[in-house]
């Protein structure tokens, strides 16, 4: 069902970021993965998730380089 799918995809989302060297942020990425999974479940549209992921990354870059 959806809760198991959201949990599994969220854990995978966090785990994939481990390959990029992310460590302590994995818990937050699992939460973001859950939000994206629920977004997809609600809309059925992957473009929404891609856009949300892109906005998250841009905000992170802005915060990282403008402190």
Report what the structure shows.
The structure is a single chain. The chain has helices spanning 2-18, 26-43, 46-65. It is mainly α and 67 residues long. The longest helix is centred in the last third of the chain and has 20 residues, at 46-65. It starts with a helix and ends with a helix. The mean pLDDT is 90.
Fold topology:
Elements: H1 2-18, H2 26-43, H3 46-65
Helix pairs in contact: 1-2, 2-3
List keywords for this structure.
mainly alpha; single chain; 0% strand; 67 residues
**What summary fits the major beta sheet?**
none
Ends apart, CA distance between termini: 42 Å
Count helical runs: 3
Which of globular, elongated, flat, extended, rod-shaped describes the shape?
flat
- Kindly name the structural category: mainly alpha
Detail the poorly predicted runs: none
Oligomer: single chain
Order of helices and strands: HHH
The radius of gyration is 13 Å
Report the average pLDDT across residues.
90
The count of DSSP E runs of length 2 or more, i.e. the number of strands, is: 0
